[in-house]
Amino acid sequence: MANYVCMKCGQETNNPHFDLVSGVVRCPTCLEQEAGLLGKLRANGENDATDFPNQ
Asked: Which of 11, 30, 32, 45 could form a disulfide with 26 if both were Cys (CB 3.0 to 4.6 A apart)?
């Protein structure tokens, strides 16, 4: 039996990811999906501080 429940999808997991800032528990599947979405956003033109080092 799993010890934790993902706060995003509700799946039980024995290998949770804890976000210490927001206090959210996520399963590895949701964590991978979020990381994939963030990577796609950055590849599609999202700017971060490293894009403009002289500002």
From this structure: 30
Q: What is the DSSP string of 3-34?
A: SEE-TTT--EESS-EEETTTTEEE-HHHHHHH
Q: Residue-wise pLDDT tens for the chain (55 aa)?
A: 668 999 999 999 999 999 899 889 999 999 999 888 878 877 776 555 555 555 5
Backbone angles phi, psi at 12, to 5 degrees: -75, 145
User: How many other C-beta atoms are found inside a 10 Å radius of the C-beta of residue 22?
Assistant: 9
Distance from C-alpha of 54 to C-alpha of 19, rounded to nearest angstrom: 32
